[in-house]
Design goal:
Elements lengths: L4 H20 L5 H4 L18 H4 L4 E3 L5 E4 L2 E7 L7 E9 L10 E13 L2 E6 L4 E2 L6 H7 L3 E7 L10 E5 H5 L6 H9 L4 E14 L3 E11 L27 E11 L19 E6 L9 E5 L20 E5 L8 H9 L2 H5 L7 E5 L14 E6 L7 E2 L2 E3 L6 E9 L19 H8 L6 H9 E2 L1 H20 L6 H22 L14 H4 L2 H7 L30 H11 L7 H9 L12 H4 L21 H21 L10 H21 L5 E3 L12 E3 L2 H15 L9 H6 L15 H16 L2 H9 L15 H12 L2 H4 L5 H17 L11 H22 L6 H24 L1
Parallel strand pairs: 7-13, 15-16, 15-17, 17-20
Antiparallel strand pairs: 1-2, 2-3, 3-9, 4-5, 4-12, 5-6, 6-8, 10-11, 11-12, 13-14, 18-20, 18-21, 19-20, 22-23
Helix pairs in contact: 7-12, 9-10, 11-12, 11-18, 11-19, 18-19, 19-22, 22-26, 24-27, 26-28, 27-28
Keywords: Hydrolase, Metalloprotease, Protease, Signal
InterPro entries: DUF5117, DUF5118, EcxA_zinc-bd, MetalloPept_cat_dom_sf, Zn_MMP-like_bac
GO molecular function: metallopeptidase activity
């Protein structure tokens, strides 16, 4: 602090008078000089922290891991001296949010192994680097020097050390009212606007502390100064609208729940993962072991589960896994949610645990929030465009022990008359939410949240809408009757089983549905006892029969064989000296047909991981995915036929038929992707050297590849598969109460999405590579007759342009398909961008077939009797194709 001029002058005068007095005082006698003089009191340091007692005078204490002091709007965290440099788990959840575009309430955001550090009078909250470790003590220092930790937040001390407790205070507002979760980036991704935290209008809204945890909830205001005017000329790339769910698009609040949790004093026992099963893991690089070629270590994520009576065949656990059911869950669904949680006890009983998983209901009048990191919970949330569930968890990075889990379930199950997840559920999908998560403060550890982001609930809701529609029209099922209600309850149980499985440490298993035979799916007794799939961790389709087929269970009601196996591997109590041998024995069962496993990457997530095993899919059913794809088209066609014949009644929802059609096409898009995997597909097996036999990769049978091609040509690419009556289409209205009311229903547009998925896959660089290379995986004797890339390109082009040979008219739907084909062909012929340039054969074949097509277009254009629309289309296609071929020659 700079003193005022008056204060400075007074101080100077005092110094001068003091010096004058000393000069006029006679020297003291020698004896007096030897007497001890009173110590001079040093001047007070104006920058020194205030005494502890002065700071918290009048404040109320919440004792806990880090005691919390509160006085009016001021909040302090007390940090004991021995707590510095002692790791704990720091986690962030979002309790209140915006309700759109991935910014939803009741979500876990992630966690870090953290510690407090004090540098002078500055306190830092540090995220420790757990990505690199060493099993050798003499190399730990080198690793610490090589890899930096990260600063989460820093703040000056708010008090001097307590004289007795040796602790210090920090201002919670200064520490926790910034943008720790990185939400400014998430907001920018959602809206492309520069939102930033506004500390002046943010505050600490709630606190809780006990011996294990200290939790503070920050109410943070994010704002942007202005919303820019829209461009005068539309941008080439559409930009998102400003926030739609807030009263003022420039302002929004989020409530972040920050938990400081003590780590277990005794770390849990580590169990190492096996690639033949699907468990989430805590992974790191062990740089202290130079004998292993691969330094990566993967520890199974699992709860600490120990028997009260280790000698008993069946014993209660010392600490059960307790899920608190959120009070927001509608009362009529609570029994189904509870049943879904406790279904997992069947798997734990198989390995000796009684009541290992428990469900407890949060009282409706409870004044505590289950978002802190000591309450595992099932949370029910809502949003304007939401339709997903997520099962994330917080773990001890040292061991993989799961310490907390908060399953988030959106409210799509509660939307009107069993019509679940309708058109108001817009396009925020799991991968988009995952992209947002990747920009958050946790970095790599946050990516596991996108791993656990799950579309199962939204897909189940859409599928349920399709199923109920078909059953109502076929069998007269009452949408509001007990049978529909029972099915809705069964679906909720199914989804809860799936999400609880994630929080127990299990990944998706997208191959398990193919381990049940078609005969078993038609057997009611079998499906009621065993379900319709061998895992609830798959995205199982509904077991809808074709007209005239026997009825069985429509959805999963119990765990499958894979679920029991995965729980056994992660949780079976095993003596330490026997663990390696016993786990190897359990994992060796992977060759049993019922235990087949394939995860998200096997199913396909895009890019190079496009999914190439047709047995590993979402939303298929039974041991013949190709047969199911054909069945799915037949079921859709039956629904379209019945919807078009449905009479209009007074009081009907005017958008009902549009939703019925939309839901059927949503699932057909996935079916198109699944059936296209057969072409150039590979069967993948998770082999272990020296343990499992057989190849790791094997090309799909030639006959199956060709059958898939025929179904694509005659079914998905044929206009005859998508017939709708003109009077039906003309009768489908829009929502005139809304500004964004929609446009007339367009079947060609819906079909184009389905067919586009086929073209994207069959004309991709990855499919070309696999078709060119698949012969390398076969013995010489089996290579003859293999499906070639030329055969695929030829079959596809012949099916899409079949009218060129017959001279038939080309309807609007087929013209659209042909344009989309030429557009992708153009990308293939662009050497600089096509991604196939590294495969000279693929480029040469694409060019050869393009020349063939140009010739066919010229010949077809000369045929008489064609409509002006067809002739114009042929001329445009030929001109575009010729320019592509000439341009390619110039560039090369």
């Amino acid at each position: 602090m700079i003193p005022s001029s008056r204060t400075a002058l007074a101080a100077a005068a005092l110094i001068a008078l003091t010096g004058l007095a000393q000069a006029q005082t006679p020297a003291a006698p020698a004896a007096a000089a030897s007497a001890p003089a009173a110590a001079a009191r040093p001047p007070a340091d104006p920058t020194a922290p205030k005494p502890f007692a002065d700071v918290i005078k009048g404040a109320t204490e919440q004792p806990g891991l880090f005691p919390i002091w509160r006085k009016d709007e001021k909040v302090w965290i007390e940090i004991p001296k021995d707590a510095f440099r002692k790791p704990f788990l720091f986690s962030v959840n979002v309790a209140n949010a915006v309700g759109e575009r991935g910014l939803y309430a009741s979500q876990m955001l992630g966690d870090e192994l953290a510690e407090w550090r004090r540098i002078g009078n500055q306190v830092q909250l540090i995220a420790l680097n757990t990505k690199f470790r060493s099993s050798q003590p003499d190399s730990k220092l080198a690793i610490e020097q090589a890899f930096s930790p990260s600063l989460i937040a820093g703040v000056p001390v708010a008090s001097a050390d307590h004289p007795d407790r040796k602790s210090v205070l920090v201002d919670a507002s200064g520490l926790l009212l910034g943008d720790i979760p990185g939400y400014s980036t998430r907001l920018e991704m959602a809206y492309r606007l520069p939102f930033a935290p506004d500390r002046a209008n943010s505050y600490i809204e709630a606190t809780r502390a006990d011996a294990q945890i200290s939790t503070l909830t920050s109410r943070v205001h994010f704002a942007t100064a202005r919303i820019p005017a829209p461009p005068l000329v539309p941008a080439p790339v559409p930009t998102p609208t400003p926030p739609q769910a807030t009263p003022d698009a420039r302002s929004m609040f989020f409530s972040f729940v920050y938990s400081f949790r003590a780590l277990p004093e005794q770390p849990a026992a580590v169990r190492h993962a096996d690639p033949r099963l699907g468990h989430f893991t805590e992974a790191y690089s062990n740089l202290g072991d130079d004998l292993k070629a691969n330094p990566r270590v993967h520890m199974v994520a699992r709860w600490r589960l120990e028997k009260k009576d280790p000698a008993a065949a069946l014993s209660e656990p010392v600490q059960p896994i307790v899920y608190w059911m959120d009070k927001n869950i509608p009362a009529k669904y609570r029994a189904a949610v509870k049943a879904g949680i406790e279904e997992w006890n069947k798997a734990f009983e198989k390995i000796g645990f009684k009541d290992a998983v428990q469900a407890k209901q949060q009282p409706d009048d409870a004044d505590w929030d289950n978002m802190d990191s000591t309450h595992a919970s099932i949370r029910w949330f809502t949003g304007a465009d939401v339709g997903f569930a997520i099962g994330p968890s917080n773990r001890d990075p040292r061991t993989g022990e799961i310490l907390d889990a908060d399953i988030g379930m959106s409210d799509v199950f509660g939307r009107g008359s069993r019509r679940l997840a309708t058109d108001d559920v817009l396009g925020w999908h799991a991968h988009e939410a995952g992209e947002a998560a990747s920009s958050s403060w946790m970095g790599e550890r946050s990516l596991r949240l996108s791993e656990q982001q799950c579309r199962y609930m939204a897909d189940q809701a859409r599928e349920l809408g399709f199923a109920l529609d078909l059953l109502a029209l076929r069998d007269g099922l009452d949408m509001n009757g007990p049978e529909a209600e029972a099915l809705a309850q069964a679906v909720i149980k199914d989804v809860v089983m799936h999400e609880v499985g994630h929080t127990l440490g299990l990944k998706h298993n997208f191959r398990s549905s193919t381990t049940v035979t078609q005969a078993q799916l038609k057997d009611k007794a079998y499906t009621e006892a065993h379900g319709i799939s061998n895992s609830v961790m798959d995205y199982n389709a509904y077991n809808l029969p074709l007209k005239g087929e026997p009825k069985a269970s429509l959805t999963n009601t119990t765990l499958g064989a894979y679920d029991y196996w995965a729980i056994e591997y992660a949780y079976k109590p095993i003596a330490a000296d026997q663990e390696a041998a016993e786990l190897a024995k359990i994992a060796a069962r992977s060759t049993e047909p019922q235990l087949a496993y394939g995860d998200d990457l096997d199913q396909g997530v895009g890019g190079p991981y496009d999914g190439f095993d047709p047995r590993t899919n979402q939303r298929d059913l039974g041991d013949d995915p190709l047969a199911y794809a054909k069945k799915r088209l037949k079921l859709s066609q039956e629904l379209w036929e019945r919807v078009q014949a449905r009479p209009a009644n007074l009081g009907d929802d005017p958008l009902r038929n549009r939703r019925s059609v939309s839901e059927s096409f949503r699932q057909l898009v996935m079916t198109a992707n699944n059936v296209s995997k057969y072409v150039g597909g590979l069967h993948a097996e998770r082999t272990v050297p020296g343990v499992t036999q057989g190849p790791a990769f094997k090309p799909v049978d030639n006959a199956q590849q060709r059958e898939a091609l025929r179904f694509i040509a005659s079914g998905l690419l044929s206009s005859d598969s998508f017939k709708f009556k003109p009077e039906f289409l003309a009768a489908q209205t829009v929502d005139y109460n809304e500004w964004d009311r929609g446009l007339p229903l367009s079947i060609p547009d819906a079909v184009a999405v389905v067919q586009g998925r086929v073209l994207d896959r069959l004309m991709s660089a990855s499919t070309a590579r696999r078709l060119i290379e698949q012969a390398n995986y076969l013995p010489e004797a089996q290579r003859k007759g293999a499906v070639s890339l030329s055969e695929v390109y030829g079959a596809l082009q012949s099916a899409i342009f079949s009218e060129l040979k017959t001279g038939a008219e080309i309807d609007r739907m087929r013209r659209s398909l042909q344009r989309e084909y030429i557009k992708r062909l153009q990308a293939q012929l662009n050497r600089s961008t096509n991604g196939v340039a590294a495969y000279a054969d693929a480029f040469a074949l694409a060019r050869w077939h393009a020349n063939q097509l140009a010739g066919d277009l010229r010949a077809a254009s000369a045929k008489p009797g064609l409509s002006i629309e067809t002739r114009a289309h042929l001329a445009e296609s030929l001109e575009l194709l010729n320019s592509m071929l000439k341009a390619t020659l110039v560039r090369s």
